[in-house]
Amino acid sequence: MAETKPTAAKAATSGQAKQSTNVISWIAPIVCILAGYTIWRFILGNPSGFEEPATEGWFWPKHHKPKGALNAIYEGGIIVPFLIGLFLMVIVFSIERFLTITKAMGAGNATDFIRKVQYHLANKNIDAALAECDKQKGSVANVMKAGLKKYREMTTAEGVDHDQKVGAIQKEVEEATALELPMLSKNLVFLSTITSLGTLIALLGTVLGMIRSFSALGKEGGGGDAGALAVGISEALYNTALGIGTSSFAMIMYNVFTTKIDSITYGIDETSFTLTQSFATQYK
What we know:
Distance between the termini: 21 Å
Number of helices: 10
Oligomer: single chain
């Protein structure tokens, strides 16, 4: 019992060190939506890009007859800024996850790292194995290092039977794993949510565009205004295109990062197996 208390205290200390405020998770969405509106209002909706610019309506001026393709996107309506904001969010969180996961993967191949540790443990050279962890510096190395420290402690522990020693090593690895894995999957929820949300918001924009089209078609005794009809259809199609593009991009990045996380998780599982099997065979 005396040996498990320091472990718990150490895990609590490590857990406190791992905690972070994750400011990006609530600042980034707000900034991206505001940036999306800014791009839509002042770049895509620049009055110089329209043959008939509006002079009223600061928040949403009703410009007509765009001169270029980018200016035509402005006619997609007020849903477009939200879709641009979602696209920017995908970029921001993709960069953030790329930097975090790249750091977590460490230096060099995780499989080669585990083989080197296995070699050193086979020669009962725990210090050399710990040195390999310092070189690798990834999540797998962090878990391995925590397990190796407990491994070394158990080699000299007295008054504890063999199964309890193996269990203590395994528990240490599980605690270290519990600290590492949440850091890998953090903020991926934004990418998975945007995968669905982008399509739904685009569908809303499409519906609004079609409402405008049918409204224009029903005017003037059914003859309708061809220009207003075209604007409504373009609004629907621009929203559809932006939503599908954003959702597709989010889905691709989500799958890329989950694949990388799976490879790291596999390496962590190998860590647990390596340490417990090595101790079980060499310190019977």
